[in-house]
Amino acid sequence: MEYWAHSDLDRDWLSFYNFLQVLERILGRQDGPGGLVETSSLVAERALLLELSFGGGDEVRVGDRGSGERAGERCDRKQHRRPPQGVRTPRHLHKNRCLLRFLHLYVPNCYPYLNTDAGTMSPFEHGEVFVLDDGGEVDLDLGNYERFLDIKLTRDNNITTGKIYQFVIDKERRGDYLGKTVQVVPHITDAIQEWLERVAMIPVDDKEGPADVCVIELGGTIGDIESMPFIEALGQFSYRVGPGNFCLVHVSLVPVLKAVGEQKTKPTQHSVRGLRGLGLTPNILACRCEKPLDVNVKEKLSQFCHVPVANIVTLHDVANIWHIPLMLKEQKAHKALLKLLNLRGCAQEPMLQEWMGRAKLCDTLHDPVRIAMVGKYTGLSDSYLSVLKALLHASVACRRKLIVDWVPSSDLEETTALEAPDSHQAAWALLKGADGILVPGGFGDRGVQGKILAAKYARENKVPFLGICLGMQIAVIEFARSVMNLKEANSTEFDPNTSTPVVIFMPEGSKTHMGGTMRLGSRRTYFQIADCKSAKLYGNVSFVDERHRHRYEVNPSFVQEFEKAGLAFVGKDETGQRMEIIELPSHPYFLGVQFHPEFKSRPWKPSAVFVGLVAASCGQLENNLDPHSPASNGIIIPRFYPNGGRVKKPAKSLPGGKLLHGNGIGNGNEWPAACLITTTTSDVV
């Protein structure tokens, strides 16, 4: 499987959030020599509601990975992925770093499931759990917002049915409703609107004042019972803010019958009809398809969906994701948004030079770097989405085309050699053919022995290795068994009665309650040794802030023995008792981190340790350790510094005040200066 400028992950619906990329560049610039304008005044009291409403049907991929997939590279996504909803939630929303000083976006996501957060969800069912600075465990889509907007969100940005119902029930138990009958309408719908307005007022990245634009994504399926309170709440909200402050964009699938090659519009027609029946009318149609829509198809959609032809945008397959903003510009999507929001006084041409350069660069990457991903959840690539994105960011920085080989860790074990010898041989062939090896985080003992074998192979054969969270613990266990001759060394997670517990349960953890009981969120790691690879990769800083999500850690009682044997603990917490970073000085690149660096990797700010892995795998490590030396390909790779910072604390409760019943009552000034609300809904046809 190849992952570079575009990957199979990106086929799942990067589509419409690139509208926001175009919008950012428009609102942050004016024509002529006047320079940047104060967009906060230009977009005052305008709310843009992007209703990303999906039509059902077969999956359509964005981009073409090409042929020639190697054995073991293909994942059975249809078997393990989330329940099919035709077109999946869009992922990609990128910010122009300069213009975001003038246009700030804030992104709440609404999910109609009863879980209070994503922390206890199976990776096979829902993909990875993304961790925020404040310790919030949220859906992977929120991680895509953070990556492409390069902002920091809070746990309050993740709004679920479970959170809303819990909030309303707690208020009822306290007597806040004064004996009234508590109902879905108005109490649940009011709570949703109040929550959205509250989180929209939280400053973005410690900036003063609320965000200029609030983007709300509503996930789910049109017609599903669990989505109804959110759709009703947004319908009330649209009435309250009025026309001109509310733009709804409906993303729907336009499938093609392979036998005749005809683009079918019925799924979109039914999707729009269902949406209108629920009280929401789309202003823009964004149509997912394999090829650009024919003119007659657009006219047909316009006639039956009551949307102008100029407001129907094609989101067809492209070579890589960086071409999407350019495609939207060609279709004048930005002008449609400006017209709907009465913002035509702004600049008419988006600033896309940065995207054009990156799209061109990714199209010209040919020298491959092959990374073996040894994990437990390889059946669904979304389980390691942030890891894949971090690898992609690092490979582009190193000017290499990324190829990821999926290696199920259990296939490396000796038991598999007896039960499924072909799978065993294929897994080892992928591992031995890789330029670098990565063992990501995980839970449970299934496949652990295979991960230990992968770490041993990397250590003994001088193959670049990066272990994350459990991957670091695996490296410690393997080193204890193979180098220190502690044959019983193990983690108490896998063997509670082990005589050599080199990895132990944290004292503040809980073994009875799973959700929110781990060491979560941004924590500071102090470098103990200045002359080490990780410190140099981070820019020779004294500490770094990274995000954590774990219950087990290296036993500090064994640290002195490990260091005598040659394993260096170069990063620790402020107490010196928690081991955060390990290195093997005698190895070209053997690194383990207890934190999750992938959660802070950005397209233009790759994670330092991922850059180290990719650079070591393609022979560029020394160029990255020396800030004055150019890369071997003549291009100076930029320095990558920690992107930590002060952690924003989420508000604890909703502000007091009257409830808003969607009857036109309410002061428009209660909403932030400008709001961009996106909701995503799918339609089953």
From TrEMBL:
<feature type="compositionally biased region" description="Basic residues">
    <location>
        <begin position="77"/>
        <end position="90"/>
    </location>
</feature>
<dbReference type="GO" id="GO:0042802">
    <property type="term" value="F:identical protein binding"/>
</dbReference>
<protein>
    <recommendedName>
        <fullName>CTP synthase</fullName>
        <ecNumber>6.3.4.2</ecNumber>
    </recommendedName>
</protein>
<dbReference type="Pfam" id="PF06418">
    <property type="entry name" value="CTP_synth_N"/>
</dbReference>
<dbReference type="InterPro" id="IPR029062">
    <property type="entry name" value="Class_I_gatase-like"/>
</dbReference>
<keyword id="KW-0547">Nucleotide-binding</keyword>
<dbReference type="InterPro" id="IPR027417">
    <property type="entry name" value="P-loop_NTPase"/>
</dbReference>
<keyword id="KW-0067">ATP-binding</keyword>
<feature type="domain" description="Glutamine amidotransferase">
    <location>
        <begin position="381"/>
        <end position="614"/>
    </location>
</feature>
<dbReference type="Pfam" id="PF00117">
    <property type="entry name" value="GATase"/>
</dbReference>
<comment type="pathway">
    <text>Pyrimidine metabolism; CTP biosynthesis via de novo pathway; CTP from UDP: step 2/2.</text>
</comment>
<keyword id="KW-0665">Pyrimidine biosynthesis</keyword>
<dbReference type="GO" id="GO:0044210">
    <property type="term" value="P:'de novo' CTP biosynthetic process"/>
</dbReference>
<dbReference type="InterPro" id="IPR033828">
    <property type="entry name" value="GATase1_CTP_Synthase"/>
</dbReference>
<dbReference type="InterPro" id="IPR004468">
    <property type="entry name" value="CTP_synthase"/>
</dbReference>
<dbReference type="GO" id="GO:0005524">
    <property type="term" value="F:ATP binding"/>
</dbReference>
<dbReference type="InterPro" id="IPR017926">
    <property type="entry name" value="GATASE"/>
</dbReference>
<dbReference type="InterPro" id="IPR017456">
    <property type="entry name" value="CTP_synthase_N"/>
</dbReference>
<comment type="function">
    <text>Catalyzes the ATP-dependent amination of UTP to CTP with either L-glutamine or ammonia as the source of nitrogen.</text>
</comment>
<keyword id="KW-0436">Ligase</keyword>
<comment type="similarity">
    <text>Belongs to the CTP synthase family.</text>
</comment>
<feature type="compositionally biased region" description="Basic and acidic residues">
    <location>
        <begin position="61"/>
        <end position="76"/>
    </location>
</feature>
<dbReference type="GO" id="GO:0003883">
    <property type="term" value="F:CTP synthase activity"/>
</dbReference>
<keyword id="KW-0315">Glutamine amidotransferase</keyword>
<dbReference type="GO" id="GO:0019856">
    <property type="term" value="P:pyrimidine nucleobase biosynthetic process"/>
</dbReference>
<feature type="region of interest" description="Disordered">
    <location>
        <begin position="61"/>
        <end position="90"/>
    </location>
</feature>
<feature type="domain" description="CTP synthase N-terminal">
    <location>
        <begin position="110"/>
        <end position="343"/>
    </location>
</feature>
